[in-house]
Amino acid sequence: MTKLINLKQNQKKIPIIDLVCHYRSIQNEIEKVTFDVLSSGHYILGKNVEAFEEELSKYLGCKNVVSCANGTDAIVLALKALDIKPGDEIITVSHSFFATSEAIALVGGIPVFADIREDDFNIDPEKIEALITKKTKAIIPVHLYGQPCEISSVIEIAKKYGLYVIEDCAQSIGAKFNGKNVGTFGDISTLSFFPTKNLGACGDGGAVITNDYKLATKIKQLRIHGSSKRYVHDYIGMNSRLDELQAAILRIKLPYLDKWNHERYKAAKYYDELFKDVKQVTTPIVKSNSQHVFHQYTIRLNQRDFLCEKLREKNIETIIYYPVPIHLQSVFSYLGRQKGSLPVTEKICNEILSLPIYPEITKDIQEYIVENIKSILAVGP
Length: 381
Ligand SMILES: Cc1ncc(COP(=O)(O)O)c(C=O)c1O
Prior knowledge:
Blueprint: H1 2-10, H2 19-24, H3 27-40, H4 47-60, E1 64-68, H5 71-81, E2 89-93, H6 99-106, E3 110-114, E4 136-140, H7 151-161, E5 164-168, E6 176-177, E7 180-181, E8 188-192, E9 206-210, H8 213-222, E10 227-229, E11 232-233, H9 244-253, H10 257-274, E12 290-291, E13 297-300, H11 304-313, H12 343-349, E14 352-355, H13 363-379
This protein binds pyridoxal-5'-phosphate.
Pyridoxal-5'-phosphate binds next to helix 5 and helix 6.
């Protein structure tokens, strides 16, 4: 109870992520490189972008990283590089951020949704084969919340049917499956450096990862209007480039990524401990073959909406990622997927709630959050 009172006095709101606190932890380093870039007069694609791509490819253990403007463009670039054409079917999940399917639609592709597993919230490999048709060209699994999906089973199916795999790693940089970084299994993988991501810029940013040199070269052209040299255009491309400021900031942050991911992991384990005796709450699993990087700490419970509302009244921010599955978004009604067609996805959407988690979160804050959850659930709706 003392903790409840102390925190109430000192802190007006518990945010889902504290980006100011995160910035302060490396403020001097960021300000120095920001000043250097501003004084250089060179702002779009340059030595920081090149160096960041090199450093990130070393970190991930892959041959090529091509940066771009954001994680949505990264998926579009990947699909364009693989020559995905209007009418091609791409198998993916409905339980993801909208951008995964939006990118497919942006190139004229048709998102075909596989249901997810109830334990890890990710694509259920057992649901994929039944969806494959002559038009299927690729699978886009998402490693949601920082938890690797069963990527080796996805790759096996893709190989059997001659399909491409694009891993959407926007939420999972640094996560490992069987000891190997996610993003290094598929033909192409994509990252987002949106500020709240585990490796976040101070603006938008994204990257495409591939071991295939030819694909990497094509993506490098696609991101700059399809051109190989100035004013010579081989493809209809995009204007999707990372700027020097973001690249310089990401270079400062990258060496801290493993430490920050570990701090997220420790915070997740502490939540697990605090929730040990709370029967109404199911905590996220960590699979024995995976290293989870806890982009989100997402619990499940029946009284989700009641809890969410009561926590909001107490100034504790929680978020539902995502309340409306993509197949039920009105803009995708043309796909003809009805309510009830993805039972696990739809069930999960009504039960999930993501709690504050970030490297600098303190045990006091976590205790405060869980004490509040316990007292709200003890009274009930
Ligand atoms: C799973 C997933 N895919 C794609 C994206 C798109 O990334 P961006 O916001 O950088 O365009 C996001 C970003 O939130 C995401 O979470």
